From TrEMBL:
Name the UniProt record assigns to this protein: Bifunctional protein FolD
Ranges where the Tetrahydrofolate dehydrogenase/cyclohydrolase catalytic domain occurs: 2-117
Matching Pfam families: THF_DHG_CYH, THF_DHG_CYH_C
Species this protein is from: Lentzea tibetensis
Role played: Catalyzes the oxidation of 5,10-methylenetetrahydrofolate to 5,10-methenyltetrahydrofolate and then the hydrolysis of 5,10-methenyltetrahydrofolate to 10-formyltetrahydrofolate.
Length: 278
């Protein structure tokens, strides 16, 4: 079982130590600003959880809560104001946003040096080219899990199910950078179960409960379930896959904790980089 809980605790503890050192030298804490549009219950819960984790790690947390009817222009303006605020070190736009909002335009309003969630095109390019920058948090957490459990992707066949710009595509780039041979699958992939059966590492990021069945898993494969669906169910049929996989992440308690831990770590990174640039 690949538990993310203890790994996340270690990441957050180190981030908290660095945040305390930053506060000692500057008189202020690293600050993460979270923007939420509307009152979707799941999003409200996620935001509350992230803010609580911030406080426990010694970070400031600023909440910008906007009504459901907020336009793209209004959201972009709010994010631009945070991007220009020297007291803010990281910006997180809680997604998904309402359907009438252009989410990509909102993401791109985040200043690259404050994109601690790794959602902008600038961050994706830096990550893909191996340049210093911010990693998309869930993919970053997945790579930390692989390292913690001594899974070396080099030479392995990794199959990523999902091609979202904040999960599927970036985790594929990170695996490729670690010398894995990567196949990205999606809703149009033909013979998907047969493709997955060739994988040494499976990353399920499709957003459908128990989509990946146990008989899709090659014996001994490493299975990373990056999905989270209603009822605490992942994208992998866990009870079927657990007997086939050599390592597997549970839902909850697998990828999720590491995602938040990387977010906090990168907020401290951002604060220290901005201080060094002064």
């Amino acid at each position: 079982m690949m538990s993310g809980t203890e790994l996340a605790r270690a990441i957050v503890d180190q981030a908290a130590h660095r945040a305390a050192d930053y506060e000692k030298h500057t008189g202020r804490k690293p600050c993460l600003a979270t923007v939420i549009v509307g009152d979707d219950p799941a999003s409200v819960t996620y935001v509350r959880m992230k803010r609580n984790r911030c406080h426990r790690a010694g970070l400031d947390s600023r909440l910008v809560s906007l009504p459901e009817e907020t336009t793209t222009e209004q959201l972009v303006a709010a994010i631009t104001e945070l991007s220009n605020d020297p007291e803010v070190h990281g910006i997180l736009l809680q997604h998904p946003v309402p359907k009438h909002v252009d989410e990509r335009a909102a993401f791109e309003a985040i200043a690259p040096d404050k994109d601690v969630d790794g959602v902008t095109m600038h961050s994706f390019a830096q990550m893909s080219f191996g340049e210093a920058g911010f990693t998309s948090c869930t993919p970053g957490g997945i790579m930390r899990l692989l390292d913690a459990y001594d899974v070396d992707p080099r030479g392995k066949h990794a199959v990523v199910i999902g091609r979202s710009p904040i999960l599927g595509k970036p985790v594929a780039m990170l695996l490729l950078a670690r010398d894995a041979t990567v196949t990205i699958c999606h809703s149009k992939t033909e013979n998907l179960p047969d493709v997955v059966r060739t994988a040494d590492i499976v990353v399920a990021a499709v957003g459908k409960p128990e989509f990946v069945r146990g008989d899709w898993i090659k014996p001994g494969a490493v299975v990373i379930d990056a999905g989270y669906n209603e009822g605490n169910v992942g994208d992998v049929a866990f009870d079927e896959a657990v007997g086939k996989a050599s390592l597997i992440t549970p839902v909850p308690g697998g990828v999720g904790p590491t995602t938040i831990a990387v977010l906090l770590e990168q907020t401290v990174d951002s604060a220290q980089r901005q201080l060094a640039a002064l």
